Amino acid sequence: MINNFEFYNPTKLIFGNGQITNIAKYIPANSKVLITYGMGSIKKNGIYDEVISALNHFNVVEFGGIEANPTYQTLMRAVILARKTNIDYILAVGGGSVIDGTKFISAAINFDGDEWNILSKNSKIQSAVPFGSVLTLPATGSEMNSGAVISNSDNNEKRVFANPLCYPKFSVLEPKVILSLPKTQIANGIADAFVHTLEQYITYPVKADLHDKISEGILTTLIDNGRVLYNNSSDEDAAHNVMFSATMALNGLISAGVPSDWATHMIGHELTAMHKIDHAKTLAIILPKLYRSLIESKKEKLAQYGKNVWNITKGTELEIAEEAINATEKFFNDIEIKTNFSDYFDNKKQTLDIIIERFKNRKWTKLGEKGMVTPEIISDIFNEND
Ligand code: NZQ
Ligand code: ZN
């Protein structure tokens, strides 16, 4: 049965090409605005110019240079700048890294104490500076959720925080931003959104028919449109559909009142932290292996997924579940995402030992929807022959 739930998502979505020109009307008049961005893609594809011209009546301060997998060290420089310049609104212009980084900046500006504790000790924040976003890479869903993932370059940790104060006030989704994305980032976006949906869907049945149908709808939309978009980034319909799917995959709707997993993400974050592998690629390595290790526990939902998403009709429940995992891995491979550890790094044993030690220290020894992702299961995943 679906559990009781509350669902509240305050982010205003502003979807469609041509919307950046309107952003001024969503920002309170007389705000002093900090514009945050990444390593320069927005200066090459014209989005920076569009944003600056849309904000010409505002007093604007800029902070560029937020790297992919944003670091606490970089973000603290933005926090200091924002405090010094008395910023009262932030506009994030970028992908998940810039939006996540901006959430941290917004939470840290008025935080009294060691700001790293927001991430490492889940320290409560009392307020957050309001912010909006212009999304340039459909992938993470950060544009419509309250979570952020931040790395620490001193100790190679990657930590997550979430707070209801950290929903963007608005997010602009212009599918045309996809035109300038490198192919590998288009693939990353499709795979990340795909895995977000699976993390909330491949658990165990609770008769949540609408949740399941929405998830299956997002997954089939991503398969059909993702394949088209990967081969032709100027296909506008595919771009619109992928962008909206990525947002819907992680805005809280499909997980409301139902079990969710997230173990693939938690293990994947460690691979990014240690080996600098793109976030989505870590998921494509871990997810099929994790599902194979837990097939008995997940087989009912996996078989449902096999039938409704991949149209696999023949075989026992277990066989359909196995085929569904194979189809998922093939989908990642079709968009040129490799799924073996050995495609990315060699020192598997050392990596595994560090992950187990970190997870034990954090008391993360029973992850997943049933607490079945133990250090032993993580070892199984790493001991797969690849
Ligand atoms: O830095 P710039 O120059 O902007 O270049 C970026 C970066 O190199 C580039 N890019 C972005 N938009 C572009 C573009 N290049 C050309 N044209 C455009 N329109 O793409 C590269 C990757 O950007 P990034 O923001 O790092 O990618 P993504 O959106 O995949 O975000 C990844 C981060 O989000 C976190 C990940 O852990 C990772 O740190 N996640 C956040 C989540 C959340 N807040 O809910 C959930 C996710 O599971 C994920 O963990
Ligand atoms: Zn993700």
Q: Would you summarize the structure shown here?
A:
With 386 residues, the chain is α/β, with parallel strands linked by helices. It is 47% helix and 11% strand. The mean pLDDT is 97.
Protein architecture, described:
This protein folds into two domains: 12-176, Rossmann fold; 183-383, Up-down Bundle (Dehydroquinate synthase-like, alpha domain), CATH 1.20.1090. The chain has 386 residues and is an alpha/beta fold. Helix 7 (209-231) packs antiparallel against helix 8 (236-249) and helix 9 packs across helix 10 (279-293). The protein has helices at 41-44, 47-54, 72-84, 96-108, 117-120, 183-201, 209-231, 236-249, 263-275, 279-293, 295-308, 317-334, 348-361, 375-383; strands at residues 12-15, 32-37, 59-63, 89-94, 131-135, 147-152, 157-162, 170-173. The longest helix has 23 residues, at 209-231. Helix content is 47%, strand content 11%. The strands form two sheets. Strands 1-8-5-4-2-3 form a six-stranded parallel β-sheet, with helices on both faces. Strands 6-7 form a two-stranded antiparallel ribbon. The protein has 14 helices and eight strands. The site of 5,6-dihydroxy-NADP (NZQ) has 33 residues, from helix 1, helix 4, strand 6 and helix 6.
Task: Give me the secondary-structure topology.
Blueprint: E1 12-15, E2 32-37, H1 41-44, H2 47-54, E3 59-63, H3 72-84, E4 89-94, H4 96-108, H5 117-120, E5 131-135, E6 147-152, E7 157-162, E8 170-173, H6 183-201, H7 209-231, H8 236-249, H9 263-275, H10 279-293, H11 295-308, H12 317-334, H13 348-361, H14 375-383
The site of 5,6-dihydroxy-NADP has 33 residues, from helix 1, helix 4, strand 6 and helix 6.
